[in-house]
UniProtKB/TrEMBL annotation:
Belongs to the peptidase S9A family. Transmembrane segments: none annotated. It comes from Fibrisoma montanum. Residues 488-706 form the Peptidase S9 prolyl oligopeptidase catalytic domain. GO terms for biological process: proteolysis. InterPro entries: AB_hydrolase_fold, Pept_S9A_N, Peptidase_S9_cat, Peptidase_S9A, Serine_Peptidase_S9A. This is Proline-specific endopeptidase. The keyword Hydrolase applies. Residues 36-428 form the Peptidase S9A N-terminal domain. Keywords: Hydrolase, Protease, Serine protease. The keyword Lipoprotein does not apply. Cleaves peptide bonds on the C-terminal side of prolyl residues within peptides that are up to approximately 30 amino acids long. Has an absolute requirement for an X-Pro bond in the trans configuration immediately preceding the Pro-Y scissible bond. GO terms for molecular function: serine-type endopeptidase activity.
Amino acid sequence: MKKTGLFLISTFTLHCMTHAQPPAAPKAPIKPKELTIHGQTRIDNYYYLNERENPEVINYLKAENAYLEQVLAPVKSLREKLFEEMKGRIKQQDESVPYKEGNYYYYTKYVTGGEYPIYCRKKGSLTGAEEIMFDGNALAKGHPYYNLGGYEISDNEDLAIFAEDTVSRRLYTLRVKNLKTGQVYPEAIPNTEAGSFAWAADNKTLFYIRKDPQTLLGYQVYRHVLGTDPKQDVLVYEEADNQFYLGLYRMKSKKYVAIASDHNGVATEYRLLDAKAPTGQFSVFLPREKGHEYDIVHFANKFYVRTNWKAENFRLMEVTEGKTSDRAAWQEIIPHRPDVMLANMDVFVNHLVLGERKAGLTSIRVINQKTKADEYLDFGEPAYVAGIGYNPDFNTNVLRFGYSSLTTPSSTFDYNMDTKQKTLLKQQEVLGGFDKTNYVSERVYATARDGVKVPISLVYRKGTKKDGSAPLLQYSYGSYGYSTDPGFSSTRLSLLDRGFIYAIAHIRGGQEMGRRWYEDGKMLKKKNTFNDFVDCSEYLIKNKYTSSDKLFAMGGSAGGLLMGAVINQAPQLYRGVVAAVPFVDVVTTMLDESIPLTTGEFEEWGNPKEKTYYDYMLSYSPYDNVQKKAYPNLLVTTGLHDSQVQYWEPAKWVAKLRTMKTNNPGQETQLLLHTNMEAGHGGASGRFQALKEVALEYAFMLNLVGVQQ
């Protein structure tokens, strides 16, 4: 017998596997651990799986991967076919629409066979010589994972700050490159926040956020001068409250470097520094106050402020420089509206552009500051997503925006705000004979158990029958106020073309229907999120979009928590569930402040050190509520280096389900765990490698409804 860590594999077992006998599922040993708080003791039999360096644990994860491959061996060719099919829809040699900033046009491009983008620019005009700033394919060589976490160009346009992650732990190493000479400067600053860095106006001083390697929270802002030892960098701000997240950027006007402190939807605070005085002190725009969130844009001698002060769905104010801390000096520009949420804004010399949400859909509103003319752009589809693009220039009358729908590929437009002319600059090219007229989208509303109307966006191929015979994939997220908008996906076509209907349930916990939609799906109202999803499923079954033996559910991260709660509540509704990087061990994680990001989550889920939140959290935590009953087919995915949801949560959940789940008479259900041993929360880093994970998910579902081609 060959011993492999926890598992003994006999030659007899191997012989059976080769003769199509059902493979034996791995079973993690039970090692009870008592967890006591509030006078209550929970027994966690798989707590030890958090020992990332333990060979026993690694071998268990590998055994689960091997088991998955054995179970899905009949659809190996389908997985390969799906991968090639999805890859074949992508235009391999492609370019983004350039945008002008300063003296350069910036764009990204992909080359045939390349997994990563190449970041380029041209000086003066689009006919100028191409300069390659960063070649992602070259930078990624030798790394199983690679991510370029943004870049920032200096005022003289010669230097670029950039950040790299080669582990997928979201701990970025900051570097500086001379774009004229190609030299990468010797200083390398580890454990920084991606995208949160800014140049001062002197072209030699930069600011960045340092993260705690244990909790992964960015909590310190440092000042660095090129050519000096990073160990001598000056600490300019430290966030004392570990429930706040830090951001750092140079404002659009270039006048200020801004530090943003955000308490997860509960409070905001900005600190500003004149970029021409990098050794000066950051000053507070408006002190933090519980319940007050705001965003700011600087223009000329004033600030525009998007604020929820006395305005749940936000309103727009303006205030002159020097008076920002006096709210009495704030002047209202756009009032609060109970049925419209002000989501974001952009400012131009003659125009104000607002991103709004109403009835679950996004809209773009353009206001002429001189004439006061006010208009909404028209998109003409029942379910879509439109958003303000990157517009670095104040002095223009042209708005760059993006548009997509369930049937329309991602599109980039320029809109002349004076002449009202809309110009399509680029639409995502979908190869393989895609024709949008072959697909239909719908927007319907399900009535939740408490009477609330929940929007559902659907897409399917023309001719798909709505008699209950079609398989359907229902997707949701439903947390953090994140709205799941009905955008296009070329990979999704592989399901639609095989008869699937795809549905997005816009459940509470998101912000599709305004701020109240979020507030009613968090903290002590979190169960509304789960109930909405189940009630949407029942609506889809009742109205013959599908049936329970062909209904699938999918969600990731906090959406994976949703999946776990849903199958504990109503497992009979689903044929199969895909839970990607699922946050399922809610109570234990939220009690451990050493785990990355825990403290910043208290305002989303509650702090279980308070008994009220502990009891409520315990009542829905998927891991704690696994019971001896029949569960649907389940595919669970995770990444060993996940920085958001630690790999052991899904691993423990699967281990517990293995011992607890039963089967309906005559029906053996699959329980599969796949761990990407080289990636984290976002999965594989390459544009094609990531498709292999999608192919796995799709093959899992297609196989269960008898589609193997």
